[in-house]
Amino acid sequence: MVAETAPNAAFTQSNSPVPHRERAKQIIATHPNVRRLFTRDQWSALWTALLVALQVAIGIGLAHAQAPWWAIVTAAYVFGAFANHALFVLIHDYAHNLVFRTPTANRLGSIFANIAIVFPAAIGFRNYHLLHHSHLGIPGLDADLPTPNEARWVGNSWWRKTLWLGMFWAVQGVLRPTTVKTIRTVDDWVMFNAAAIVAAMAPLVWFFGWWPVGYLFISTIFSLGVHPVGARWIQEHYVFKEGQETYSYYGPLNKLSFNMGYHNEHHDFPHVPWSRLPAVRAAAPEFYDHLYHHRSWTRLLFFVLFNSDFRLHNRIVRPVPERMKDRVAA
Considering the domain boundaries, does residue 119 fall inside one? Predict the structure, then answer.
């Protein structure tokens, strides 16, 4: 089967500025009390420890009980995906230095959260995600953008979209970083991140075999892929209403995802921790209620996979700033 691609399929080009900075200024001018939400939430460290410990304990328990492979996969889908997705959200808050006072402490916290995810992603995510905020929608700077070849290959084929989302851990963690030339893919912190994960996995394998690690990694694949929480990665910036670039989700799974669905609010105020993002919307509803938003990640998942109108080309892109062209092309 060949993926169907419209003859003129292309990303939506825009010269308009990113809306978040201007909207944030307007909200602060209208609701100055929003500034009180700019703080850190050290409870995230406790949640990190609990979720990592729980995930590791489940993996060990499944191995000790000699659970069959299908039971391990089922446990990873039914529970593990939610837990590891929640850990990704906490890693996201560490990336914005919203847990501890110093960047070093936040890096270390994110690496600890990374243990249950297995794939060493925390520091790489931090490096590329901060660029995503400062250069939203700019190819070569925003690693959240699909590449032209990636979008062309996926097209609107349901099975290619399913394969792409099922392998999103590799797409986001391995393929996309190669498109960003302005920062080093591997630095000392990235190496330390990888070494820490190896050190954490080694005793699990030594004492309990490979199944605990398998459970954790399968949980990660589902948390990023063909699962309701996997739709979150699509919800954020793929275009569902002409001219709108960022989208929030206001459904019940926010309670299991540390409010990660509040994505417009987060881009407007990246210095607000997950626990206070609903308060941003509550303080300034006139700025958010009219924006297109999602109510169901499950419904979104089925739409993305099986509706031929959805393509990876459904993204807004901006030209590279003149001052950055040499660095992007390097």
Answer: yes
Residue 31 counted as domain residue: no
Which domain covers residue 111, as residue numbers? 12-24+40-329
Q: How many domains does the chain have?
A: 1
Question: What residues in the chain have per-residue pLDDT under 70?
Answer: 1-9, 326, 329-330
Token digits for 79? Answer: 């529970």
Q: Tell me what pLDDT residue 2 has.
A: 32
DSSP state letters, 214-276: HHHHHHHHHHTSSSGGGGHHHHTTS-SSTT----EE-SGGGGGTTTTT-HHHHHH-TTS-GGG
User: Do 310 and 4 contact (CB within 8 A), yes or no?
Assistant: no
> What is the spatial distance between Cα 274 and Cα 90, in angstroms, rounded to a whole number?
8
Which residue type is seen at 60? I
pTM for this entry: 0.93
Cβ atoms 175, 147 nearer than 8 A: yes
Backbone angles phi, psi at 141, to 5 degrees: -125, -30
